[in-house]
Amino acid sequence: MPRFSIIVPSHGVTGRLSQALDSVLAQSFGDFELIPVCDAPEAPAADVVAGYAERDSRVAPVHSPPSGGLAGARNSGMRAAAGAYLLFLDCDDLLVPGALAALDARLAETGDVDVLYVEHERVPWWEGEPSNPAAPLLAGTPAGAFSPDQVPALTGVQLPAWSAAYRRTFLVEQQLTFPEGHFTDVGFGGSVTLKAEKVAVLRQAVVRHLVRRQGSRLALPGEHHLELLAQTDLVLTRAAEQGLSADRLVPLFEQLFAAVLKTAVHPKRLPAKRRIFFRLASRLYRRHRPPGHRMPGGSLGVQHRLLATGAYTAFRALRGVNQSASKAAEHLPRPRMVRTRLRYAANLRRPLDPNLAVYCAYWGRGYACNPAAIHARARELAPHLRSVFLVEPDQAHTVPQDIEHAVIGSAKYWDVLARATYLVNNANFADAVVKRPGSVHLSTQHGTPLKKMGVDQATYPVVAAATGSFSKLLARIDRWDYNLTSNRHSTQMWERAFPAAHETLEYGYPRNDVYYTATAADVARIRAELGIPEGKTAVLYAPTHRDYHTGFDTGLDLEAFCEEAGEDVVVLLRAHYFYDQGTARNTGRIIDVTAHRSSEDVCLAADALITDYSSIMFDYANLDRPVVVYADDWDVYRETRGVYFDLMEVPPGPVARTPGELARVFRDGSWASPESTAARAAFRERFCQFDDGRAAERVVRRVLLGEPPESIPPVIPLAERTPAPVPALVRN
């Protein structure tokens, strides 16, 4: 029997799951079992957990349906547990180093107590000093084991479930489980302390709670706040049945109703049914108020008296003084010209146009990427929509003639942004754009993250300086309703990089649909348009941007590479879009395709890809064609830019670190060897999960047509997909 069983529910926070599991497995005290609880075998968290279970026999995952909620997940973990003591850890939590050793040592001192209460750190998600909210609650408790009767103020309802270790046999004997519904910690914590005979305290932080930027889900508006009353009733009813002494009943009553009043006075937690909540709370107050209970003084006492008498109108008037403190700051529109600003403000007062959709790609660089692919599919599936593409003035000529566009900064630009119901972008709209109630913002992203993104860039000074204000970044992502991903890795990393309340759509990248729909004729046509000579092997060289470099440097003598790689090799050079000057720089066997509007076309034309750390490798892998990584400065890039995983451990093909090694890979054929194919297969399995040729359709149906998730076409399994024909077959 292990000393500890650590139960970790994972629903809704998969992006942080690895951090929680790593914090447990890194403990110096190893006598434990780790029980991650996943929604189902095919859930995103299950993929993460499976890898841990393969590597460590102490990891024993179980499943609990999402309908069971947090309580169901924890109870499922409890039923599977075999440890002497149970610990509960949410995905937002970490076990601090040495936590289990400290728990074991303290239990050796106190003996087999029913509950060992511990302190925890509450770490702000962004900045500020950690707090220890449990410390004052546990202060002044006896040094050894003690009965809860000795410390009446220690009721258990103010501590989260992960701020204690519970003796498993005690929970089983007392039939203690987490009650269904929201605020389950209140019901569980209160019930546990009522039944416990011997408890102890460890005055040391054991858990580090990472506060989500969105805050606790329990604090969000909604009718779930009514369930706090059910948990309050549960605990106080059990206390009455147990005949709890007045010394313990009074602090329990006051602590529970402090939480009830905090919800009742909050201006936004109960946008509806406020009166119902108050009346139910008033009945509970009168039913459970201990005999002889003296109400507190001050404004809190006024709230108690109004609740006791059911005086909702007076209570609501009192609550009005808190409105200003909780009012959210609003972002005012700030177009540059006064006349345009006034026009935009006026349009914001007009109704949204239900049939207007606005698209933008790469800050207005033209008709490209995921927004263009979604736009094209919407013209077929949602022809009733008016679609407007936003472009910079110098890119207006690149928009196809049959596509309506608006120049960024123009009056039309602000007009459509003010009234559009649907806004689709692969980057972000300007800070001045107001998110209107009823509008739908879709972020499509424009790549799979290898390098750190969003707020994860904050600890890398060079990148952070270029990113600018992170508060403005957060304001922009707060406008998103949906965020698109092409694989589970992206799902998890975007959750970390862009912490907000949007919904993730695991639908694939629409721009990659063409990799499964293009024909041999399409490939031949594109190669001809790019000027690739007949019979040549076209190698696409696409290096990424270096934050620590100024200007573009190929980083490689491409003419020399062609000479050494073989006489049939030509290079398609595609610099990062930051360096697109709009003109080609062809020389010898080098064809500059940087200015070509479609990176998808360029990929379709290439027999193989050479890249360093560009996200193009993840898209190109859909074609199941050879990929070679040229990593001459990987260590520098990793340290200065930050990465989410070590590409050198899981590359999509051969890795070369010098120009000579790179040329040799092509000269000796290892770029297309069985080993290269095997590496690419593993890479595709991980990063090509949702790209199947129907991503754009899924997005249009769900976001623009409002179809329910269950009616959206499912993703075709990787083994059943057929990529576009390889150029060699086209040539033959």
Can you lay out the helices and strands and say which pair or pack?
Layout: E1 4-9, H1 17-25, E2 32-38, H2 44-55, E3 62-63, H3 69-80, E4 85-88, E5 93-95, H4 99-110, E6 115-123, H5 134-138, E7 164-167, H6 168-173, H7 184-195, E8 199-210, H8 226-242, H9 246-265, H10 274-288, H11 298-309, H12 312-319, H13 323-326, H14 338-348, E9 353-360, H15 369-381, E10 386-391, E11 405-407, H16 411-419, E12 420-425, E13 440-443, H17 461-467, H18 470-477, E14 482-484, H19 488-497, E15 503-505, H20 514-517, H21 520-530, E16 537-542, H22 558-565, E17 569-573, E18 590-592, H23 599-605, E19 608-611, H24 616-620, E20 627-630, H25 634-641, E21 655-656, H26 659-667, H27 674-687, H28 695-704, H29 727-731
Parallel strand pairs: 1-2, 1-4, 2-3, 6-8, 9-10, 9-12, 10-11, 12-13, 13-14, 14-15, 16-17, 16-19, 17-18, 19-20, 20-21
Antiparallel strand pairs: 4-7, 5-8, 6-7
Number of strands: 21
Strand order of the largest sheet: 3-2-1-4-7-6-8-5
Strand content: 5-15%
Distance between the termini: 65 Å
Spans of at least 5 consecutive residues with low confidence: 321-332, 578-584
Quaternary structure state of the chains depicted: single chain
Largest sheet: 8 strands, mixed
Alpha carbon gyration radius: 30 Å
Mean pLDDT across all amino acids = 89
- Summarize the amount of helix as a percent range: 25-40%
How would you sum up this structure, described in words?
39% of the residues lie in helices and 14% in strands. The protein is an alpha/beta fold. It is globular. The N and C termini lie far apart (65 Å).
